[in-house]
Amino acid sequence: MYPDMMNMSPYSTKAHTQIDIDSDVLLAEKSALINSLIVWNDEVNTFDWVIESLVDICNHTPESAEQCALIVHFSGKYAVKKGDFDTLKPMCEALLDRGISASIG
Questions:
Q1: Which of 47, 55, 57, 83 has its CB 3.0 to 4.6 Å from that of 87, i.e. a possible disulfide?
Q2: Which residues pair with 62 in a beta bridge?
């Protein structure tokens, strides 16, 4: 329920305008578009391989890819890229094809 409606009586004449409704829909659509490409730590892949893969697939700079690889190593996982599902899916599949554990969340 909307917070401003919590204190309204059922007989209130206040109504939401079309602009309010459109804003709510746009906000919901925008938040639904944001996904994360998560890389998971493993004991198989080397730092150099993960860094090279993030540069090639996710268009990271070498410095950014190195930082991501370190965070993955020490934290167990890291969201290396954010975006809509359709953009992240081929990146995730490409990382998986290289043997790197990845998912979209």
A1: 83
A2: none
7-47: per-residue pLDDT in tens? 555 555 555 555 655 555 555 555 557 999 999 999 999 99
Q: Indicate the pTM of the whole model.
A: 0.70
Sequence-distant contacts of 99-104: CB under 8 A, at least 24 apart: 99/44, 99/45, 100/39, 100/42, 100/45, 100/49, 100/50, 100/53, 101/39, 101/40, 101/41, 101/42, 102/37, 102/38, 102/39, 102/40, 103/37, 103/38, 103/40, 104/35, 104/36, 104/37, 104/38
Mean pLDDT along residues 67-86: 97
Which DSSP helix (H) or strand (E) runs through 77? strand 77-83
Q: Which two tokens stand for residue 37?
A: 């490409």
Q: How far apart are CA 25 and CA 37, in angstroms?
A: 25
Given a contact cutoff of 8 angstroms between Cβ atoms, the answer to whether 37 and 81 are in contact is: yes
Neighbours of 95 (CB within 10 A): 24
